[in-house]
Write a structure and sequence with these properties.
The structure is a single chain. By secondary structure, the chain is an alpha/beta fold. The protein contains 13 helices and 8 strands. It has an 8-stranded parallel β-barrel with strand order 1-2-3-4-5-6-7-8, surrounded by 6 helices. It starts with 5 loop residues before the first strand and ends with a helix. The mean pLDDT is 96. It binds 2-phosphoglycolic acid (PGA). 2-phosphoglycolic acid binds next to strand 8. 2-phosphoglycolic acid (PGA) binds next to strand 8.
Length: 267
């Protein structure tokens, strides 16, 4: 029994034009119609897509009234101002978008975002009522050097410490995605045992710093080469509350399959 429910999230990264986004969502809606399993799951199953910024208005319009929720791949914490290249919570809310992914490994490693910068995003976005999914995870050399827990410690202590973290962890406004960098886009999925061990550690960290209620409420997703073939086994782990899926979320039939697998894993 998954007491926290399950979140199946697709991170499209820099893929899919607005027209492709619309077609994807139309097909997803068609596939979900009359799917008793999905209807029965109700709010315990969340299916979520993070399309590129240019597709957000179309995605939001098209998903309205369906079970699909839409989020942005990044956003800045101020309401407006001189922040070239950024979008704000106000802009996202204007198109009925509530979710934002923050601190994805590509933001950290390709674009050099630091924990300090990520903390500013987390603080500002939570303060403005957005739902934040904070991504963390170690690189391959860090894992090989036995530093996985130390990296999780540092990323969480340096990027989560906001005055809103406590209530946001309790009420589902803040979730975590553990994504080992070596597993992202490589086909090298963490074994369920590796993912569970790291995610159990994340939950323990939350317990130690924010208490039992926050630790038992927060959803922790796994990400890194998740696909229809390995999702069920990952979701069977007690500390894995969903998946953040890159490559395998780009094809609607595969994404839908994974949402169905999520619904099966709920009980
Ligand atoms: P992947 O990406 O599923 O293609 O490994 C996951 C992610 O980057 O969120």
């Amino acid at each position: 029994m998954k007491s926290r429910g399950i979140i199946i999230a697709g991170n499209w990264k820099m893929n899919h034009l607005p027209a492709e986004t619309k077609a994807f969502i139309d097909r997803f809606k068609k596939l979900s119609t009359d799917q008793k399993q999905i209807q029965d799951a109700g709010s315990r199953l969340k299916s979520l897509l993070f399309p590129p910024m240019l597709s957000l208005p179309d995605a939001s319009d098209n998903a309205r009234g369906s079970t699909l929720q839409i989020g942005a791949q990044n956003a800045w914490g101020e309401a407006s101002g001189a922040f070239t290249g950024e979008i704000s919570a106000t802009m996202l809310r204007d198109i009925q978008i509530q979710w934002v992914l923050v601190g994805h490994s590509e933001r950290r490693h390709v674009f050099g975002e630091s924990n300090a910068l990520i903390l500013k995003r987390v603080q500002g976005l939570l303060g403005q009522g957005m739902k934040v999914m904070l991504c963390i995870g170690e690189t391959e050399p860090e894992r090989k050097a036995g530093k996985t827990e130390a990296v999780i410690d540092r990323q969480l202590s340096e990027s989560l410490a906001s005055p809103w973290a406590d209530s946001a962890l309790k009420n589902g406004q803040l979730s975590l995605a553990y994504e080992p960098v070596w597993a992202i886009g490589t086909g090298l999925t963490a074994t369920p045992a590796q993912a569970e061990e790291a995610q159990k550690y994340c939950r323990k960290w939350i317990w130690d710093h924010y208490g039992m209620d926050c630790a038992s409420q927060v959803s922790i997703l796994y990400g890194g080469s998740v696909k229809p073939d390995n999702l069920a086994e990952l979701l069977s782990c007690p500390n894995i509350d969903g998946a953040l899926i890159g490559g395998a979320s780009l094809k609607v039939d595969d994404f839908f399959k994974m949402v169905l697998i999520g619904s099966e894993a709920l009980n």
